[in-house]
Structure formats: C-alpha cells, structure tokens
Recover the amino acids of this structure.
C-alpha cells in the first residue's frame, strides 16, 4: 500500500475534515478524496462518514487507525535508517518518560558520545503506553520507563530503583486531605498508598505528572509523594520537609527493548545505560532530616560559623549532579 494513502488518512483523522486535511497537505480536496477512495477500494471497506461537520470514522476506520499509525512510523524509521549521518555506522532511537530525561538519560547521551561515537542517536519523550507500542512496532529500539507491561517479543530489564518520599511545605506532622497533592505514580503505588492512607482517597489535587505536582506545592504549599532525588535540593534549602513516619515506596526504572533487535546496536546502548544507572544509584536516595526546623537551623548555623570557602571535614564530599525534572 502507498504510504501516502495512510498519511492522508491520518491527516483527515487529525483535522476532522477532508477540506482541512487538503490544506495541511497542500493538495486539492479532490486529490484527498481520490486517495481515500483508492484506500477504501484496497481495503474493501468504507473508512469515513462525511457530513456537514466534517468526517468521522466508521467501525472499519477505527480498526485501521492503529495500523495506519504504525505504517507511517515504520516508514519514517526506515527513511531515517537509510539516511545515516556521514561518519556514523548506525542509528539508534530511544524514548523515555519525561521525568527520566534529566539527569539519567541526559547522562546516557553524554556517555554514548564518548563510548559509541559511531552510533547516531534519535530521542523521543512520550507516555508509557506509547513508548511500549513503538518498541513493539519497531519504531523505537529502546524505551526507558517506570512500569512497562510484559508483551510478547519484548525484554524488560530493571536498571535502577528510585525512592518515592512524602514531603510537605508546612510543619504539620500529619497529612491533610485539603492540601494533599496525589501524584499518579502507577497502579502499584496506588495500591500501596491507598492501604497506608485510606483517608486521602479524595485529595485536593490529582495530577499524573510528578514535576507538575512538585512545582505546584512549591508555589502554593501542600504535601505529596515525589522522587527523592528530585526533592533533595528543596530539603536541603528548607523549602520542603520530610513528613515524619511516612513510608517510602520503591519505584524501579526499567529498560524495554525487542528480543530480536540488532545486538550490535543494542549492546553498546544498554551497556552505557547500565553504567549510568549504576553511577546514579550511588547517589540515590539521600536521607534528610524529617523535620526542617531544628536540624536545618543547626546545619545553617554550622555553615555560618565556618570561614567562607571551607568545608566541615566530617562531611562527605558529594558529587555535583543536576536535580531531575
């Protein structure tokens, strides 16, 4: 089948109209209609119902949609693989959840530049279901994510375990439903969280992105569960405090790739990813005092009593790293 037909189909779905799809494709409406008639002839089924409001999918169109998306993505991937940049031997495409790019996957990119300069890299940020779908379809070589599902033909490897900790902007020793921000860290977290905190079933705010929830409580106040490495700078500065007695939850990071993938391409990337994950795990999590008052004040007083530019010899030397998103 002509890829152009599948792309035209997707443009109509995305715009909701043959007219708007024609404008996007810079062709006439007659051309768009002719392409869809040809596609419907090849499939033996009508794909759209046209009306005054535009165009809507038939049952057959709904079924064809996911295949059209894969067809176009695989074609684009093939074009990229053929057009490998000068001086490179291969192209690897990696995708990851937003919160895993800084610093984990950023550090991986730096390491790959040094350890495998012959491999060109293409990166994507997406949500878990889309990442898994693209790995299964061969559009992505590797996906890095928190909670992948086991699918036929795919391998899952745990590379790192983060820790979710409960923090607050206030001095309260008990979580309050009115200012609690529930971050959706997935089904496993939800089950454990609800068993521990049944009284927080209806929080004041529900979000499905950790950085969004964290920035919200930093601006408006409140409490919630976040990744330890992300909140560490705010614990040190006193902007946040650990909630006393609140449990910590393990939150593993996984890498997902095809079992039939090109090992000469995958192995250097996976090896670099494991190395970066090992170095990151040396620094996570960093335990902080559970209250920000006395302990934080004492830290500030000790720092103020030392001459500028000196360090307490009892304090460990910490490697510098960027706070994750």
């Amino acid at each position: 089948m002509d890829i152009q037909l599948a792309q035209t189909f997707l443009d109509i779905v995305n715009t909701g109209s043959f007219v708007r799809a024609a404008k996007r494709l810079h062709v006439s409406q007659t051309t768009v209609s002719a392409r869809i008639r040809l596609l419907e002839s090849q499939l033996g089924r009508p794909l759209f119902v046209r009306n005054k409001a535009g165009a809507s999918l038939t049952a057959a169109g709904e079924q064809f949609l996911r295949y059209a998306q894969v067809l176009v993505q695989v074609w684009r991937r093939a074009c990229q693989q053929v057009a490998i940049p000068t001086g490179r031997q291969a192209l690897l495409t990696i995708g990851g959840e937003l919160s895993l790019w800084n610093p984990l996957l950023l550090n991986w990119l730096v390491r790959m530049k040094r350890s495998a300069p012959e491999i060109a890299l293409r990166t994507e940020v997406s949500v878990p279901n889309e990442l898994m779908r693209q790995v299964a379809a061969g559009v992505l070589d590797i996906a890095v994510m928190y909670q992948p599902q086991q699918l036929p033909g795919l391998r899952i490897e745990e590379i790192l375990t983060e820790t979710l900790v409960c923090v607050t902007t206030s001095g309260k020793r008990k979580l309050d439903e009115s200012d609690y921000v529930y971050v959706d860290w997935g089904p496993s977290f939800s089950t454990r969280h609800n068993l521990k905190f049944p009284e927080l079933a209806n929080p004041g705010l529900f979000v499905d992105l950790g950085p969004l929830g964290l920035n919200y409580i930093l601006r408006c106040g409140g409490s919630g569960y976040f990744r330890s490495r992300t909140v560490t700078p705010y614990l040190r500065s006193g902007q946040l405090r650990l909630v006393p007695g609140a449990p910590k939850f393990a939150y593993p990071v996984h890498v997902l790739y095809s079992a039939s993938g090109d090992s000469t391409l995958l192995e250097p990337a996976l090896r670099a990813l494991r190395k970066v994950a090992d170095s990151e795990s040396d620094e996570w999590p960093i335990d902080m005092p559970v209250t920000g008052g006395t302990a934080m004040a004492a830290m500030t007083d000790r720092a103020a009593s030392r001459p500028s530019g000196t360090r307490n010899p009892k304090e460990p030397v910490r490697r510098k790293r960027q706070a994750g998103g």
Notes: The longest strand covers residues 154-168.
